[in-house]
Write a structure and sequence with these properties.
- The structure is a homodimer.
- By secondary structure, chain A is of the alpha+beta class.
- In chain A, helix 3 crosses helix 4.
- Chain A has a domain at about 5-75: Orthogonal Bundle (Arc Repressor Mutant, subunit A), CATH 1.10.10.
- Chain A has 6 helices and 3 strands; from the N terminus they run ααβααββαα.
- Chain A starts with a helix and ends with a helix.
- Chain A has helices at about 5-15, 20-30, 35-40, 45-60, 80-95, 100-105; strands at about 35, 60-65, 70-75.
- Chains A and B meet through helix 1, helix 2 and helix 5 of A and helix 1, helix 2 and helix 5 of B.
- Chain B binds a DNA duplex through helix 4.
DNA sequence: TGGCGAAATGGTAAAATAGCCAATAATTGA
DNA sequence: TCAATTATTGGCTATTTTACCATTTCGCCA
């Protein structure tokens, strides 16, 4: 695969790799929301939330729509939510068997 | 959802959010590989590759196994590879219709 | 048309990340 | 047991990211 492709993919993944941004994506998976709604959920400064949204929009994760004074954001590609299930699987597997092989060798009860 | 949960998920996602690390995951999806193999693929210093692997191991993405002098790494949770398909979808959708609504309004040819 | 509210942008300081080199471990084999 | 090989760790610097505050922009309506 072309190196530039990896750079592109990393950019998109990086755009989700932040607790607040995951919180935002999670909220948007339920319904479209304005920046002010999202600010209440995330709890940081409005400008901070706006910048998070800008990064995600730039990456192609979300889409916006202006209505009067407000800007409403929504998810652009639904499949990213399925992915989070896989992330849960990673978390689960960490608890189940950290260093499984090692454990078998040193603790074979 | 609990804030700590978002932090955990972000840690895992962040562990993939780098071109070299994606390159590594891609290679490991084919087969188990030692650090020296991965270094040839990635092209940076061996210590750099080792640190990338350490981050991903810590996140639960990969698992290692020592054989003599070499350490072999492999994927721990296969589902992350499916996700990359979704990332491709994001990339594709960016080319198809960036700011689709705006485009309709300002450039209706 | 002046002021108000929502959002974006600029500026900046603090924190996190990345990458290289050097040094250290660990293991093999001569 | 010493030298060679593979990997990890420490130290350091440069870069990137984050978050806040202040400022600006944009649209609404009194």
């Amino acid at each position: 695969m072309h190196p530039e492709r990896f750079r592109l993919k990393a950019q998109i993944i990086k755009a989700m790799a932040h607790p607040s941004r995951l919180m935002i994506l999670d909220a948007l998976s339920e319904q479209e929301m304005c920046v002010c709604d999202l600010q209440k959920i995330v709890g940081s400064d409005l400008s901070t939330v706006s910048k998070h949204l800008s990064v995600m929009k730039n990456a192609g994760l979300v889409q916006d729509r202006k209505v009067g004074l407000q800007v409403f954001y929504r998810l652009r590609v639904p499949c990213i939510m399925q992915f989070f299930g896989c992330v849960e699987e990673v978390i689960a597997s960490r608890f189940v068997s950290d260093h499984f092989d090692d454990a078998l060798q040193t603790c074979p009860r």
